[in-house]
Known about the structure:
Two copies of one chain form a homodimer.
Chain A: H1 13-30, H2 38-45, H3 49-56, H4 59-71, H5 86-103, H6 105-112, H7 121-142, H8 151-173, H9 179-201
Helix pairs in contact in A: 1-2, 1-4, 2-3, 4-7, 5-9, 6-8, 7-8, 8-9
The structure holds a DNA duplex.
Amino acid sequence: xxxxxxxxxxxxxxxxxxxxxxxxxxxxxxxxxxxxxxxxxxxxxxxxxxxxxxxxxxxxxxxxxxxxxxxxxxxxxxxxxxxxxxxxxxxxxxxxxxxxxxxxxxxxxxxxxxxxxxxxxxxxxxxxxxxxxxxxxxxxxxxxxxxxxxxxxxxxxxxxxxxxxxxxxxxxxxxxxxxxxxxxxxxxxxxxxxxxxxxxxxxxxxx
Amino acid sequence: xxxxxxxxxxxxxxxxxxxxxxxxxxxxxxxxxxxxxxxxxxxxxxxxxxxxxxxxxxxxxxxxxxxxxxxxxxxxxxxxxxxxxxxxxxxxxxxxxxxxxxxxxxxxxxxxxxxxxxxxxxxxxxxxxxxxxxxxxxxxxxxxxxxxxxxxxxxxxxxxxxxxxxxxxxxxxxxxxxxxxxxxxxxxxxxxxxxxxxxxxxxxxxx
DNA sequence: CACCCTTGTTGACTGCCTGCCAATAAAGTG
DNA sequence: CACTTTATTGGCAGGCAGTCAACAAGGGTG
Lengths: 207, 207
């Protein structure tokens, strides 16, 4: 007889955690929440179902972790030229953004897609934090008169984020717009916002 | 003894269906899908749980019906003046829209809110249909050069719908923008889109 | 090399939830 | 008042999620 092979292998907690999370990300990305059972995830990861609870607590907790994982945008290279006229800065910003999105397009679309009714405070908080982070980045990249510290400016650009997501969906998922058309739409819109809208919502006197 | 009171009352199928649906709408509006059990809905409606399946089939079917119900926008009064210069038409359009939304703001926000990960084809289809309907209405109201029959125009305005939803959320839910600020943002953006973007995405030669 | 100790992992138990279906009774009809 | 129709109920069967005590993989120690 050869050496008795162990029935299962022991992994470092971090490694096991990450492995399970990867499987969960894949499954939750394909099917809606209630159509994915913890048994499915456990089978996919090749572990006992109870192990999921051991590492993540409840199924919902695992789901929240998945959302956090998927919302995590690839590192923002600040390699965007923040100089030149407004139009150039905006174009560069939009261009760079579309580039990063096209690389992770599928995941991005899955995350930002609307699931429908069902107000889930925790999920909304995670997405809101991601949106605000993106808004700050945009304001930073575009430069003056855009001000990352102005709450009004951030709110407007968060709303602009809604336009960005919807436009990217039209392009990357539905293919009803070309990349150039999306670029045109987002650039013009952002230019208009920076020039005509932001000055009107600046919190000048701390009102 | 007074007349023996029946243990339960018989309702017309339509009436019962609507009553159950109303309860489902309320509960699904408060909590996420998996946190609402069919038992909860049945108790709320004062009926046996099996009746839900009788009228709606599965729990998911009932949920889809709820989404359809909530997506249903109040009747589009075409009482918007579709005359005058572009700016006036756009302003009137946005104004009217914000009015109707403010009336049903809470529901509107709940429906259009993103739930997070979980691609559900059926839900997305329902929301997509509603978005496209709204896009046609906007293109119609704004008038030339906007063309409700142009697929490219509709795609751009569907994307614009993303901006509208996000902006309304900032205003009606988070109160980070005032109504006037939202009005400014949506008007300027729509004007820019009609003037600078739509001409660039027109399906001229059926390419 | 044998033993032990830590702890990553398992498997069963329990309670809840969903979909199904035959039995039941409310209300109309002759 | 009997009879029919059918809206409604209640219980059954299968599946899923959370808990926990027991097990074994792998490294450390003498």
